[in-house]
Design brief:
The strands form two sheets. This protein has a five-stranded mixed β-sheet with strand order 2-1-3-10-4, sandwiched between helices. Strand 6, helix 5 and strand 7 form a beta-alpha-beta unit. The two termini are about 35 Å apart. The relative contact order is 0.21. Helix content is about 35%, strand content about 15%. It has about 350 residues and is of the alpha/beta class.
Length: about 350
């Protein structure tokens, strides 16, 4: 969720292929599957782990796909811009991007779920006075977020809104993610920090602070958002999905293998399957982060209809385009390819 994406301009596309329905073809011409697929991923955050596994383990290659990974670690808004501009074919990013794009009249559809929950935590320094049992104690806090308009920003603002606390009661400070975010808390630049793993685990392992709200769990997500908040997905413009359904199905099969691998493997085995370029920090700490975040990962890639309303409710509070639009959630995601993949091998 990035404010920068609100200015993205592109030609509106026909929105088809929602939940349960087959993507439209719009033409009787024979389809030609992509020879190479450009997939962009915008973050090393643990939410995207199933993509890292599929790439590192050669699951795409096993499906006969030549995948070129692009825009690594450049941020979700940059990845979305690349997708809409046509310089990448598939994005690894947050599901709520599809809602924001529909509000702008553009057809972007998620086709496999990687992370069924946000994985965000709110951590406090060892001398923090904030007590989640008394939400009002957050007043006056300097809260580190990854960046303005990010998911961590909305995490804080939605929490404040749910507890009737004005945004002016706190100071939101962009501190990035990973080691930079941990350092901001350690050095006292912020009192509280909202971030993902592996930063959350690093804070605990180094004795820098403690986790006060843990949205890696379902209970924590409901405390902050009022429900489960699906996050990391693979999505594409509907025109690409319509033109290359066989390619999309192969990507989904590869990701389902990755999800199954995560579900059945120990954290150590998962980390051992990754090259150093995918691992943030030392492998032992990263393995602890994987174990702590295990509950966020989907096991089969399917979208649960009941959960998709949570991101819409959150976006509707802070995104004027979404608030003003009549969003049809069934056209922001599809389970079609997951269902097809589940009937094969």
């Amino acid at each position: 969720m990035h404010k920068a994406m609100l200015g993205i301009g592109a030609t509106a596309l026909l929105l088809l292929g929602g939940c349960g329905g087959a993507p439209g073809t719009g033409s009787s011409a024979p389809r030609q599957e992509a020879q190479e697929v450009r997939i962009s991923v915008g973050s090393y955050n643990l939410n995207n782990l199933p993509f890292f596994i599929a790439d590192a383990q050669g699951y795409f290659k096993d499906e006969g796909l030549k995948v070129r990974t692009e825009n690594f670690a450049q941020g979700g808004s940059k990845v979305l811009q690349a997708l809409v501009a046509g310089s990448t074919d598939v994005a690894v990013g947050f599901y709520d991007h599809t809602i924001q794009m529909q509000a702008k009249g553009k057809s972007v559809t998620a086709f496999v779920l990687l992370s069924r929950n946000s994985g965000l935590v709110l951590a406090g320094g060892n001398d923090s006075s904030f007590d989640p049992a008394r939400p009002g104690t957050i007043r006056g806090a300097r809260i580190g977020i990854t960046a303005p308009g990010s998911s961590s920003d909305f995490f804080v603002r939605y929490y404040l809104e749910r507890h009737g606390i004005p945004e002016s009661a706190v100071s939101l400070i962009g501190v990035g993610s990973g080691a930079a975010a941990v350092a901001a808390l350690q050095q006292g630049k912020v009192d509280l920090l909202v971030n993902y793993d592996p930063a959350a685990t690093l804070i605990q392992e180094r004795g820098i602070g403690r986790i006060l709200i843990d949205a890696r769990s379902d209970a924590g997500a409901r405390e902050v958002y009022g429900g489960i908040y699906p996050t990391s997905v693979l999505y594409a413009q509907q025109s690409f999905i319509d033109a290359h359904p066989g390619t999309i199905e192969k990507i989904v099969r590869a990701e389902r293998r990755a999800l199954a691998f995560i579900a059945r493997s120990s954290a150590d085995a998962i980390v051992a399957a990754l090259p150093d370029s995918y691992v943030s920090g030392d492998r032992a700490t990263y393995a602890k982060a994987v174990e702590a975040a295990r509950a966020i990962f989907s096991t089969d890639g399917r979208f649960a209809e009941a959960d998709m309303a949570t991101p819409l409710a959150v976006l509707g509070e802070f995104n004027p385009d979404v608030a003003a639009a009549r969003i049809d959630l069934s056209h922001t995601y599809t389970n079609r390819f997951v269902e097809l993949a589940s009937t094969q091998h």
